[in-house]
Amino acid sequence: MTNTGNLSCKKSFNNKQKQNYLPKRIILVRHGETQVNEDETVLEYVPNYKIKLSKKGRHQAHKTGSKIREIKLFQNSDWKVFFYVSPSSRTRETMEEIMGGGETFPKEKVVGVREECRLREQHFGNFQEMETRKKIKRMRNGYGKFFYRVPDGESSADVHDRVSAFLEGLWRDMETNRFGNGPSNELNLIVVSHGLTILLFLMKCFNWSIDQFEGLTNPGNCEYRVIEVGCNGEYSLSVHHQDEELREWGLSQEMIEEQKLRAYGPGFL
């Protein structure tokens, strides 16, 4: 739901120039429900990256593609979309359902699809025995989810490092306009990934602290977060999302005010 409020825009000339080549939006989408939601024991014999969507998950993803189009994000007739996707089966299947076989996102509107390994799920080791998995979750909750390292796997801090490397490359691509975005175009990036990876993407993007990260809630299956360029020429969650949503996601009042500052500038606080 778009956060309209009583805010209006007064764009400076420099901010207009800056916005001419920036992708209008970055939409972060978590994959749909999977086989694990139906039977968690599949992790004992199916590699994590090969886990597939369930029938419900496919329906969720298809519906999410329609929602993204229906919420009037794409009002400019010259809109384009570029997809980034984690290499897991469930994320690639989610992306395919979002695209709707070319119906939801026609092929002529999709300027690129890139599989990005740095957007993969946190590595939990190899096959996961259920009792060990439960023990890891208990220990992580007590230790802190950012620094806890899964035995034979990754910590959230490790995932943060590779997501940061991806974002640094993405910013360079934006600054040099490698997407070929022009003044009349409205380019949208859709990133299909995993819950923790999305949280760490936001953490890096907005320079949130570890304590702020620890307070965030994981996105539900096929939930999405819209980061959009505001009047102030900066990316913000507050352009599209309302304060109530941000609170539900674990953002403090201070973090919400910072999002509004990024979106509308100091005159709107």
Q: Supply the CATH superfamily name.
A: Phosphoglycerate mutase-like
Instruction: Write the H/E string, N to C.
Output: HEHHEHEHHEHHEEHH
Number of helices: 10
Structural class: alpha/beta
Unreliable spans are 10-17
CA radius of gyration is 19 Å
Beginning-to-end CA distance, first to last residue:
21 Å
The CATH topology corresponds to Rossmann fold
* Amount of helix: 40-55%
At CATH level 2, the architecture is: 3-Layer(aba) Sandwich
Number of strands: 6
CATH top level?
Alpha Beta
Proportion of residues in β-strands: 5-15%
Strand order of the largest sheet: 3-2-4-1-5-6
Describe the fold and architecture.
The two termini are about 20 Å apart. This protein has 10 helices and 6 strands. Helices cover about 40% and strands about 15% of the residues. The relative contact order is 0.19. One of its GO terms (molecular function) is catalytic activity. It comes from Sesamum indicum. This is Phosphoglycerate mutase-like protein AT74.
Compact summary:
The chain is of the alpha/beta class and 269 residues long.
Secondary-structure blueprint:
Blueprint: H1 13-21, E1 25-30, H2 35-38, H3 55-70, E2 79-85, H4 89-99, E3 110-115, H5 130-143, H6 156-175, E4 186-193, H7 195-205, H8 210-214, E5 224-229, E6 235-236, H9 243-248, H10 253-264
Parallel strand pairs: 1-4, 2-3, 2-4
Antiparallel strand pairs: 1-5, 5-6
